[in-house]
Design goal:
This protein is an alpha+beta fold and 406 residues long. It has eleven helices and eleven strands. The longest helix is centred in the N-terminal third of the chain and has 46 residues, at 2-47.
Length: 406
């Protein structure tokens, strides 16, 4: 008891302030590490989501039309058809097609659609894709039932064929075949009915984190008007990005005055779709690493200072028969007490702070036990390592030298 009182008087008020600072550093490190862990697990879950297409070896670019002559639908459609033929002849291109909107590009072309079986109900909203034959094959979107578009669907058809996505088919025709059913855009009584000829797999349009959206596909040539801006998707045999210059030149061989912009690989678009979460993760990683180092340095500094201030006390303990193992245990126990208090406070702080990033989490709860347990174990290991050096130094104190210092 006398030794403990002597130690407390030696440490003084500044020692208490240092210990409080260490507790705060450990708590802050835990809060940041939990945020980092939650975002990391969220990103892993996000990139495990199937986008609905094969992004490998897929190049995309937006082709725009400029000029009054393209106000004519036939001229506009002819330009895109000729450009597509030119692109398909580029060496290294295995497939190519145009689409009015591209998944994960930020497009949101939504139209009202009405189903014949629900003529008395209001129309619903669905993504409208105007695509060229070969689009599904190029993108790697699987056919579930029926057939895909072919060259005969572009001209000379009395009833316009459409393709819908699987989730829409299941919702509207549960347990039934959607092929052969009729729908129409806009829901106006004078609009003709279109016939569903196929059902394809679901595609993530807005984001990997957003649930499946209803989608209706029509051929570009059969749409009410020509889309003056379209996306070109090209599947290549090798490096997709390396073919971009040749593909641009192929389009410009048809008309050199038309803009070709937003060139990117589909894999790049997939990565960009999670850019906000990735940026937040990088920020948390940087701050969490710094906080972890500060916490470790704080524990080490406080214990090292404590050992220096308590040299005589520790020497007396050793002189009275205390084992060196017990001295090591004493110092580590004191350091882990600081860490334990900081962890407890940090857990409460992490529960509150995680609410700020809840909107960026996907497939992971902000109370994810794996993340919290992993962070606690990491902090405990780092704390033990930070305690180790001062503890070993304390165990090597020479009792006679320590007593002569007084």
């Amino acid at each position: 008891m006398a030794l403990q009182e002597s130690s407390q008087r030696a440490v003084g008020g500044h020692g208490r302030a240092r210990r409080a600072l260490v507790v705060v550093e450990v708590a802050l490190a835990l809060v940041l590490l939990v945020g980092c862990g939650l975002l990391l697990r969220s990103l892993n879950r996000l990139f495990a989501v199937a986008p609905g297409f094969d992004a490998s070896h897929l190049l995309t670019m937006q082709v725009q039309t400029y000029g009054r002559r393209f106000d004519d639908n036939a001229t506009c459609n002819r330009f895109f058809a000729q450009s597509l033929d030119a692109v398909r002849n580029v060496p290294g291109v295995s497939a190519a097609a145009f689409t009015s909107q591209l998944p994960l590009s930020g497009d949101a072309d939504v139209y009202g659609v009405q189903f014949e079986s629900e003529k008395d109900k209001g129309k619903e909203a669905a993504f409208r894709y105007g695509v060229a034959p070969g689009y599904f094959e190029t993108m790697g979107i699987p056919l579930r039932r029926g057939r895909l578009f072919n060259a005969q669907d572009t001209t000379g058809v009395s009833v316009r064929p459409v393709v819908i996505n699987e989730s829409l088919a299941k919702r509207k025709y549960p347990g039934k075949d959607a092929v052969g059913r009729r729908i129409r855009f806009g829901g106006l009584p004078d609009r003709p009915w279109d016939v569903i000829v196929g059902v394809v797999g679901d595609v993530k349009q807005s984001s990997l984190a957003v649930s499946q959206s209803d989608a209706v596909y029509v051929t570009t040539a059969q749409w009410l008007w020509a889309d003056g801006t379209q996306w070109l998707v090209v599947r290549t045999r090798g490096d997709a990005a390396a073919l971009a210059p040749a593909i641009r030149q192929a389009i410009w061989s048809v008309d050199k005055d038309q803009p070709v912009v937003r060139v990117a690989t589909m894999e790049g678009l997939l990565a960009a779709s999670a850019a906000e979460r990735r940026f937040a993760l990088i920020m948390f990683q940087g701050f969490a690493f710094a906080a972890l180092l500060l916490a470790a340095a704080g524990i080490y500094g406080v214990l090292s200072g404590g050992v220096a201030e308590r040299t005589r006390e520790l020497g007396v303990r050793l002189a009275l028969g205390a084992s060196r193992e017990s001295i090591i245990s004493l110092i580590i126990r004191q350091g882990m007490t600081f860490a334990g208090i900081g962890i407890a406070i940090g857990l409460a702080g992490a529960v509150v702070a995680s609410q700020a990033i809840a909107a960026m989490l996907f497939g992971v709860s902000r109370f994810d036990p794996i993340t919290y347990l992993s962070v606690i174990v990491l902090l405990a290991v780092v704390s033990v390592m930070a305690c180790g050096v001062p503890a070993r130094r304390a165990s090597r104190i020479d009792p006679m030298s320590a007593l002569r210092q007084e």
